[in-house]
Specification:
Number of domains of chain A: 1
Number of helices of chain A: 3
CATH architecture of chain B: Up-down Bundle
Number of strands of chain B: 2
Strand order of the largest sheet of chain B: 1-2
Distance between the termini of chain A: 38 Å
Number of strands of chain A: 0
CATH superfamily of chain B: Amino acid/polyamine transporter I
Structural class of chain B: mainly alpha
Largest sheet of chain A: none
Strand content of chain B: under 5%
CATH class of chain B: Mainly Alpha
Strand content of chain A: under 5%
Shape of chain B: globular
Number of domains of chain B: 1
Oligomer: heterodimer
Chain lengths: 72, 381
């Protein structure tokens, strides 16, 4: 819950400071990129708070590195 | 948007603080045990070699960052692949640094507090710094860096009474292999991480030398890291050091001068947090700038906040716990970092040299070798 709250608060600040001016100035690429990043963050944070195990890229990196360099 | 510019001195300060970064807290190259000083010196020599490549890339394209250079060298498709890989490296390194410091604060002082509180507290300041621009970071560190150095030196002087020089003996007891392995670890974490400065040194003011920035930073940060790692070995000894997750903090903790000067570790930890802040800010800056370049967005600052939030979340999910984090940092990270710290820069450097050579030849042929022959676009060597 607390993680979601953090993201929502920072996200709201972001919407007020940046997102609305971006929309008004018709900076569409920045606008849509920021909105998509924010949506990904919101989905992630809800999953984190619901204690869903999210696969971390570091596990895959570990597997690749172990495979290539033959580490134990 | 106005082009930002930092002075040579500011760049040196930012880079030195960046290099000290999280390795001052975590310690690196523990495999070398009592020979940590040899490993650090070898790592500095290795770093000085790769800095020639980094410096040459920056000086061949003055005023350009690595993303612009990749565009020039590799065309649209291939450059995007390199760019994405570089952005992910900067992003994941930032997340790792935030996680390191979050775990540090949680383990040493606030065990009940959720991890996200530390991550978001750190990221808010990073976002603020990135939005302020790299000049802001330079000015901030110009004030704090002397404090930083004074703190490290004074803590070392205060712990002289605890030094046991037998802790550094026997030299090379386990042979040279563990030392070389440790020096490779120290080379990748933290020395070669300055590859991220290829995105930043494009903002260096004219008449500044990128080589001076790289080598002076290496000398300052390398010496400070050497002092810190040798101090913790001298104070704690090898068994004591191996038991600690944060050896530098532990060695500061036991300083006691009479009854009036003790428990100074908190103030030292705060000073070390500055280096963590610098490192994660540079990472966020590089990834934000890369993403803005990828999508052709003029004002990169607009992306700092959404990317910062994502970085904080990534720092939470990147590792399950502190044990896994420390294990990953020591065993996997050095090999993972090779791609971005050595392979990609070397490819960029070779292609840049070839292209410069070809364009020079073309220019000379066009002008018939006249006095007006185009001079290669190179900076201070």
């Amino acid at each position: 819950m607390i993680t979601t709250l953090n993201v929502v608060i920072i996200g709201l600040v972001f919407v007020i400071i940046d997102l609305i001016p971006m929309y008004q100035n018709k900076e569409w690429i920045s606008f849509f990129l920021s909105v998509s990043l924010l949506i990904i963050s919101l989905i992630l944070v809800v999953l984190i708070d619901l204690k869903v195990k999210i696969p971390s890229p570091s596990d895959y990196i570990e597997k690749i590195v172990t495979f290539i360099f033959g580490l134990e | 948007m106005e082009k930002e510019a930092i002075s040579q001195k500011q760049a040196i300060i930012i880079m030195s603080t960046f290099i000290i970064g999280s390795s001052a807290i975590l310690g690196s190259g523990t495999k070398a045990k009592q020979d940590i000083w040899i490993a650090t010196i070898i790592a500095m020599v290795m770093a000085s070699l790769i800095y020639i490549v980094y410096g040459r890339i920056s000086s061949l394209f003055p005023g350009k960052n690595i993303y612009e250079i990749m565009d020039v060298l590799f065309g649209k498709v291939l450059s995007k692949i390199f760019l994405l890989s570089f952005i992910f490296y900067a992003f994941s390194l930032g997340a790792l640094v935030i996680r390191n410091f979050s775990e540090f604060v949680r383990i040493v002082s606030l065990p009940e507090t959720p991890l996200c509180i530390f991550a978001f507290s750190a990221v808010i300041i990073n976002i603020w710094a990135v939005r302020g621009g790299i000049e802001l970071l330079g000015r901030f560190l110009s004030i704090f860096f002397p404090v930083y150095i004074i703190m490290i030196i004074s803590v070392t002087l205060l712990s002289i009474s605890l030094f046991n020089f037998d802790n550094l003996k026997p030299v090379l007891y386990d042979g040279i292999n563990p030392v070389l392995s440790a020096s490779f670890s120290i080379f990748t974490f933290p020395f070669a991480e300055v590859v991220l400065f290829l995105c930043l040194l494009g903002n260096l003011r004219k008449n500044s030398s990128v080589y001076k920035v790289y080598y002076r930073s290496l000398l300052i940060a390398g010496t400070l890291l050497l002092i810190v790692s040798v101090r913790s070995t001298l104070v704690l000894g090898i068994p004591g050091k191996m038991l600690q997750n944060f050896p530098t903090y532990a060695s500061t903790r036991i300083i006691r001068i009479g009854n009036f000067l003790q428990r100074i570790e908190a103030s030292v930890a705060i000073v070390f947090m500055i280096s963590g802040f610098t490192k994660s800010t540079v990472c966020l800056y590089s990834s934000t700038k890369g993403l803005a370049h990828l999508f052709n967005i003029k004002d990169y600052r607009r992306l700092a906040m959404p990317l910062g939030i994502l970085m904080a979340l990534y720092s939470i999910i990147i590792h399950e716990d502190a044990v896994k984090m420390l294990e990953w940092a020591s065993k996997i990270y050095p090999y993972y970092a090779i791609l971005h710290q050595i392979i990609i820069p070397v490819i960029v450097w070779i292609v840049a040299e070839i292209k410069t050579l070809i364009s020079n030849k073309n220019n000379t042929t066009k002008d018939g070798g006249s006095e007006n022959a185009a001079v290669p676009e190179s900076g201070n060597l």
